[in-house]
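Predict the 3D structure for this chain.
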Amino acid sequence: MEHFSVVQTLCRIGLEGADPRFRKQVERLRDRLRGGDDEKSASALDRLLSGAQSEHTLTPSAVEVSRLLVTGDELTSNVHPPADRETSVPLAEIILQPGMGKPSPIYSETLSLALGAMLGEWQRVDALRAMGVEPSRSCLIYGPPGTGKTLTAFWLAAQLGLPVVNARIDGLVSSFLGTTARNIANLFAFANRYRCMLVLDEFDAVAKMRDDPHEVGEIKRVVNTLLQNLDARAGTGLTVAITNHDALLDTAVWRRFENHIRIDMPDERTRVVMLSTFLNPLPVEEDVVRTLAFVVGKRSGSFLKNFADALKRVLAIGGVQVSAASILGAARAIVPRMAIAGAETSPAALFVEDEAKFVGALLASGLGIRQASIAKMLNLSQSTISRYAQDYAA
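Done. Predicted structure below.
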């Protein structure tokens, strides 16, 4: 399709508005492209639609619905969180509008379904109670650093119109005997009083295995206190715990959470959607985004955001016209200072050190990037690209 990169950018901008009429037209365009045997363009629109779906389809039907799920006094700016008695450090921070100033998370299709199912329970309490069951009230979110676990917890609270009581782990843990357990009890007593979502970040700091030989006896008292308070809160409000180190958690802690959601490194399709989003407002063609995703490899969402921001800074400072070639040139300047080159045969290392092998690896990757696109991105002739491909295959 001629000028598809421009059409793609217009579709991406339009889908951000979440207008169902616009989405329907994009779906019609995708279907016509597919019917006309332009599978590459149709797949590009599919990815845009999937990214927009993960951002917009889980919006709440009404903020008031959460009142059936969480009771208590209203949190206001005049309410102060409890503090450690010895140090006066607050045990938590109160976030009245957890979605304000934060980007919409981008999820894989599987993760979107899991979060959507959980939100469905929390948003349709009346329907569940009519069937004689209660919605789940707790969730443990775990996975590698930088994958959006805390962002997800805040996003869930924003969908329900609930403020967040975000626990400060450094405020909970104390060197004074018995103080950590008391801090946990005070935190839960505070959260149980108010309508809120209690978020326990870096959860492994207070939920470690009680049989760990490296831990002193105090950790057993702390975990027992935590378990007791989780049980007491089970019928009161929503609790979300977050950890990067799920292997450290006591087995009894896992049983206290009805939902266990792992947020892993994004898959290839999600990485492309993420990079497309993070590179806005640059007019980036689909093949360029997929090439950049191939270069950086399996990375977290936070890494991809930093990579896209660094790329835009290089382009802005250089004052060059934005094009496929200038974007790849900026990426080549960024890769060496972002510690992603890795092994000598990695795509990032080849991208910087061995153009011929990089082209061969890119063509052999199965991403379906055309030789003409690669030639345009790297300022090479079509014959050179063909020769690189033949040499790599040999």
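The first strand starts at residue 92 and ends at 95.
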